[in-house]
Amino acid sequence: EVTVLDNFYFRQNSLGDCCHYPTFQIVRGDCRDEALLKSLVPKADLIIPLAALVGVPICNQDQIATQTTNFDAVAMLCRLASQQQWVIMPVTNSGYGVGEKDKHCTEESPLRPLSTYGITKVKAEEAVLQRENSLSFRLATVFGMSPRMRVDLLVNDFVYRAVHDRAVLIFEGHFKRNYIHIRDVARAFHLATESTATGAALNVCTGEASSIFDVAQGLAQGLNLAIEPELVGRYRAGDIRHCIGDPTRAAQLLDFRADVDVKAGLGELATWLADQEADDRVDEAMDELRQRGLER
User: Fold this and answer.
1) Cβ atoms within 10 Å of 183's Cβ, excluding its own
2) Helix and strand totals (H; E) in the chain
3) 3 pairs with which residues across the strands?
4) pTM of this prediction?
5) Residue 134 near residue 89, CB atoms below 8 Å
6) Residue 119 phi/psi, 5° resolution?
7) How many whole angstroms separate alpha carbon 296 and alpha carbon 293?
8) Could you give the CA distance from residue 192 to residue 186 in angstroms, rounded to a whole number?
9) Which residues neighbour 205 within 8 Å (Cβ) at sequence distance 6 or greater?
10) pLDDT digit string (tens) for 27-79?
11) How confident is the model over 136-178, as pLDDT tens digits?
């Protein structure tokens, strides 16, 4: 049986294709509602807390909601769950902060988050891992298709801008990151439910380093677009740099290895985005960054 708690903030219908399963239940509500959680938590064998405000801009915009959703709700969930119940929680590899060029971050690397988003997710991971029966997934930069597409994610945004604007704007072109396709993330969760691994943080990533500029150039070439990525010579406060996860532990404990690389995932994004109406908010987003002192 699967029960989903969601406040449907975006009025999404992404769970519609699951509703025909007799063992599937949807509860409309808020993850911060303690009375509601007290009625739901005891019924579960496995708990996966997905609710979060994700990304630097939205977390800086509403820091109270970020604190109460990203950390307080998770801490409450851990308090309400018994030691026999299993918790698997996705966090972010941005908790590593600024990494060292050409050096991978292992799960033993120090956590030095730079943003409100990173800080709250690191605190939430600490709460989860204080329990013995838990796993934490430190996700690389996620990309790929979803029922409610987010074009603010780095690779998704690159494809969107290339297809519609014939331009790609880059803040920190030489900084390296690694990426993970959403299908690989889902597979990691599936593998975790079939394993006996507990009490660990795991990097869920490819382990392959790519500079942001290289990704943008590869995108232009792969889509046969005659565009040259534009380097603006500035950076956004809170963005992580040279953060490359080491996937060794996930391979050892879950037998997980990423199957989808960035190049393989670009085609499906381009196919979907080519048919979408462009909503160009680049100038608006840049103005907001300046007003909030987040562009340096």
Assistant:
1) 15
2) 11, 12
3) 25
4) 0.81
5) yes
6) -65, -45
7) 7
8) 10
9) 93, 138, 139, 140, 178, 179, 180, 244, 245, 247, 258
10) 999 999 999 999 999 999 999 999 999 877 788 889 999 999 999 999 999 99
11) 999 998 888 777 766 565 666 666 666 666 556 555 555 667 8
